[in-house]
Amino acid sequence: MLRFDVISIFGEMFSAITAQGISAKALDKGLYELAVWNPRDFTHDRHRTIDDRPYGGGPGMLMMYEPLRDTFKAINQQQPEQPNHTIYLSPQGQPLTQQRVAELATLPRITLLCGRYEGVDERVIENFVDEEIAIGDFVVSGGELPAMMLMDAVIRLQPGALGHQDSARQDSFSDGLLDCPHYTRPEVVDGKAVPPVLMSGNHAHIAKWRYEQQRQRTQARRPDLLNN
Ligand SMILES: CN(C)c1ccccc1CNc1ccc(C(N)=O)cn1
């Protein structure tokens, strides 16, 4: 069973994936387990300090080394037998792709470090982080939402997470093309009809049309995805 250990000062945010939807059902089915660790629990001062000012000056605060080190130690004491892979979500990371998600989905254990403030002391990354990942080229206020997106993408690839028909469909995604258009009832609405080929019952024609649509859309919207 896949285990996630998450380091975050805002652990309650993760109810966004544990309370509803496919990720909640997968948790109930025992397809993964999740533990959230708060670095504040690994401080020793009265104010439970986990941030401090940056050397060299500059705006904002950084997450300090020692509380994070002690959090990593506690996590690794709990699961010494399982090999661990630690990911830091940051704008400086490698862009996440579906191919990388599929590789991560085969791991038994993933630790996710969620940065806040202006990030973490670089020595944390050097000593404890295996991989730095960005879920896109933009900045948000913390690593928690990026972590939840990575987790959701990995969870839905776990066997049993999707109904059979969905898992068949998501395979069409992993052929590196954008998805084709989709339609459902009614057949005509506000003067717009469903493409007749989809009403034909000719499954070979339907498959050909859908693939053609995928290729046209990818060429038009994301030519960078072609020639892979
Ligand atoms: C607070 N910031 C700027 C920060 C700085 C350093 C690390 C983490 C953070 C947390 N923010 C993040 C995290 C990830 C992504 C992403 N694209 O995956 C975007 N923002």
Automatic annotation (TrEMBL):
Q: What class of enzyme is it?
A: transferase
Report the protein's function.
Answer: Specifically methylates guanosine-37 in various tRNAs.
Q: Cellular component per GO?
A: cytosol
| Domain tRNA methyltransferase TRMD/TRM10-type, chain residue ranges per copy | 2-227
- Assembly and interaction partners: Homodimer.
Instruction: Report the main location listed first in the record.
Output: cytoplasm
Q: Which gene encodes it?
A: trmD
Q: Which InterPro entries match?
A: Alpha/beta_knot_MTases (IPR029028), tRNA_m1G_MeTrfase_C_sf (IPR023148), tRNA_m1G_MeTrfase_TrmD (IPR002649), tRNA_m1G_MTases_N (IPR029026), tRNA_MeTrfase_TRMD/TRM10 (IPR016009)
List residues binding S-adenosyl-L-methionine. 115, 135-140
Q: Which UniProt keywords apply?
A: Cytoplasm, Methyltransferase, S-adenosyl-L-methionine, Transferase, tRNA processing
UniProt GO BP: tRNA N1-guanine methylation
Origin organism is: Thiomicrospira aerophila AL3
Name under which the protein is recorded:
tRNA (guanine-N(1)-)-methyltransferase
* GO function terms (MF aspect): tRNA (guanine(37)-N1)-methyltransferase activity
Spell out the family assignment given in the record's similarity comment: Belongs to the RNA methyltransferase TrmD family.
